[in-house]
Write a structure and sequence with these properties.
Two copies of one chain form a homodimer.
Chain A lengths: L2 E6 L3 H12 L4 E7 L5 H8 L3 E4 L8 H11 L4 E6 L4 H10 L3 E4 L4 H12 L7 H9 L14 H10 L5 H8 L3 H15 L4 H10 L4
Parallel strand pairs in A: 1-2, 1-3, 3-4, 4-5
Helix pairs in contact in A: 2-3, 3-4, 7-8, 7-9, 8-9
Chain A binds a DNA duplex (30 and 30 nucleotides) through helix 7 and helix 9.
Chain lengths: 209, 209
DNA sequence: ACAGTAATACCTCAATTGAGGGATTTGAAC
DNA sequence: GTTCAAATCCCTCAATTGAGGTATTACTGT
């Protein structure tokens, strides 16, 4: 049975070309094509597509919103972003919204067709440069001494970030309670914070520990 | 010029097959092959490979350690994991260690060759099921009310997690200082913690906020 | 009408923390 | 040989917090 495809793309010529190309092959069936995401929820529910091709830059609701609408309406529909944007900001917003693939518009048609098959088979097609960005995001950029913390200060901060009190930290490190407080007093200005709670928030959200 | 490849794989038959296959094509050159990662640092420095094929399950230092050794010795060398393991644990350890690709051993040889070209061109080849896992990891599994927090309690926790004091939170929400303290006292048992610092640690590390 | 929950607000007391000091020892750098 | 940073320890005082309460209002579901 043909793969049911729905297209969200505001460029009419491109949208028509894609539709024409995909319809010319028995393997694919374009069941709907739209210049924006306003009706994304209802058409997804009505047409039950296997795959949605989604542009990002569209008038009204953009494609990032669109991913969420399609995914919420019908999680089984695989969403492939199809866009010119290559920046981390939009990329990760789409991924968090539930996109199953991310292709740049420079992708040649045969690769696009292959990606549609791949996403239906449970894959996650991505343009090479996108895949590289995604993998790079896992390498925690060790903020190596961005705040010039000493070895001991880092240890204290790590334990603090587990929610431990000064007394418990002292026990863990086998040093005195007052020493821990001294370290904390030295840590705060280095992190540009004023109290332990801010320090924890900063340490955890900036992956210092 | 041929792509310089180094192979870490403890299965001798597989290692020899790969070497033989790759050497049969002028495009590729296997400059070294090893049954473990003990010498990974020194051979990477000595042989200056473009690509390292890395198994995970090897005697001695395993492949996860191996990725780190190769990447630390020579960041330009692209490392492709080549393994049977499909579990999130090992996968994300490899990605954090700096792997540039992740192929399952069931990958057919022609896809493996394509992956080597792709990684040299700055891509990040992944088996489809791996790519899907990676993308899924971005969908923050909304821990929807795992701890049964009320709307207001969630708001208080969100502000607390920015490091705000009770007094500041009261100001932000336009409620009294004592009310904030009441909410906090109700939040702690729900999160199974005993103080604000533990609450922040839990909220941030479990993505509650 | 009544029970339950969420949200609001106040009180007290002991413990912890932040802020401000000062002080010693050790090992590396110049 | 002196200087410097890191690590250790102690003191005080005011502010914040945790823990234990109590109490009112408003809305929801029965």
């Amino acid at each position: 049975m043909a793969i049911r495809i729905i297209i969200f793309e505001d460029n009419e010529r491109l949208r028509n070309s894609l539709t024409y190309l995909l319809r010319s092959m028995p393997e694919y069936d374009v069941v709907g094509d739209y210049p924006n995401c306003r009706e994304a929820t209802s058409v997804t529910l009505a047409l039950q597509p296997d795959v949605a091709l989604m542009d990002i830059d569209m008038p009204g609701e953009n494609g990032i919103k669109g991913v969420g609408m399609v995914k919420e309406a019908r999680p089984e529909t695989a969403v492939i972003m199809y866009t010119v944007f290559e920046d981390d900001e939009k990329l990760f917003q789409c991924l968090c919204a539930g996109a199953n693939g991310y292709l740049l518009k420079k992708t040649p048609p045969d690769k696009l067709f292959e990606a549609i098959r791949e996403v239906v088979d449970g894959g996650a097609p991505m343009s090479p440069s996108i895949a590289r960005r995604v993998l790079n995001s896992f390498q925690q950029s060790k903020t190596e001494n961005k705040y010039q913390l000493s070895t001991r200060e880092l240890e204290v901060l790590q334990l603090l970030s587990k929610g431990f009190s000064a007394k418990v930290i002292a026990g863990e490190l086998n040093i005195s309670f007052e020493t821990v407080r001294s370290h904390l007093k030295n840590i705060y200005p280095k992190l540009h914070v004023n109290c332990g709670k801010e320090a924890i928030a900063k340490a955890l959200s900036e992956r210092i520990v």
